[in-house]
Amino acid sequence: MAEEMSLKIDDALDSGSNIKSEILPVQVTSIRLNKDNYLSWSAALEIGITCHGRLSYITGEKPAPSKTDPRWATWALEDSQVKVWIISSVSADIQPLILRKSTAYDMWTMLARMYGRKKRVLRTYQIKRSIYSLKQGDLSVAAFFAALKTKWEELDYHVNDDWHCGSDHALYWDKEWMDRTFIFLGGLRDEFESIRSQILNCDEVPGIEEVYARVESEEQRRQVMHIDTSQGSSPSAFVSRASGIGQRPARRCSHCNKSGHSVDFCWDLHPERRLVRGRPPSSRRSPSVPEPSQSSPSNVAKSKISSDQIKELQAYISRLSTTQEDASTSEGAKLAQALVATSDQ
């Protein structure tokens, strides 16, 4: 009874597969296999085949039944679908090498032998050399990390990972990911020195994913700060902020239509304000230079004092110094001395 039920289920699945085969695509990946991209090609093709429920045809888990088996026709149809996917995803010079293979599993294993582990030691050396020489340069943090991660995945594929002790295997990968974290931090630009120092100064360096998240957040923060700074220091923004500061509205007289004063201080209407309008010059203003036609009081005094008068003043001063006149006379003597000193100059 159980065998009959199982047979009915298999028949139903087979009939469903026949229906699905009519709408399956010819290609399941856009990557074409060449002599150098087996790792990325195999990963993409494996995902595409798995999406359509045909993974067991390339892993060998679903071998061909006997041709007398009722399920052989369904198996042959589905296996041919996988073969079409493989053939359509390799380059034209590789297609003749696998075209005559009887099953999809035979195609898959042959390509793996030819390109999967070809020259493993040489390829491992090339990958490691490119990893250690890779720097961020003009790349973003995300693009730089993606480039490193792609190379690490290819390196893991080529490295022989046969371990007899599970604990040693775990310790090895802990150390390996620590080294990869250092490679990522060391390849960053100098502008990330602060976040790099913060991470390396931790008692325990976080995992590679957390380190990447911190650095990527720092990159976004710097980009935002750069935009804000450039906008805040632009000439247009400075002018817009500075306009109107420290300026007084220009005054214009409604009587004479001249700027610089109002009608209340117009000299045409108020000539008396010519003498009282002005205020003493402040320390910030340069002292006014007298016009050539005007003479200072000291110059007038010089021109009116003769040599005889100077002698009389000197005699008067000498008498004052001996008699010790009162304070008012002393003040007069000081004035006379000033006049004499001015005359001597």
UniProtKB/TrEMBL annotation:
<protein>
    <recommendedName>
        <fullName>Retrotransposon Copia-like N-terminal domain-containing protein</fullName>
    </recommendedName>
</protein>
<feature type="compositionally biased region" description="Low complexity">
    <location>
        <begin position="278"/>
        <end position="298"/>
    </location>
</feature>
<feature type="region of interest" description="Disordered">
    <location>
        <begin position="277"/>
        <end position="307"/>
    </location>
</feature>
<dbReference type="Pfam" id="PF14223">
    <property type="entry name" value="Retrotran_gag_2"/>
</dbReference>
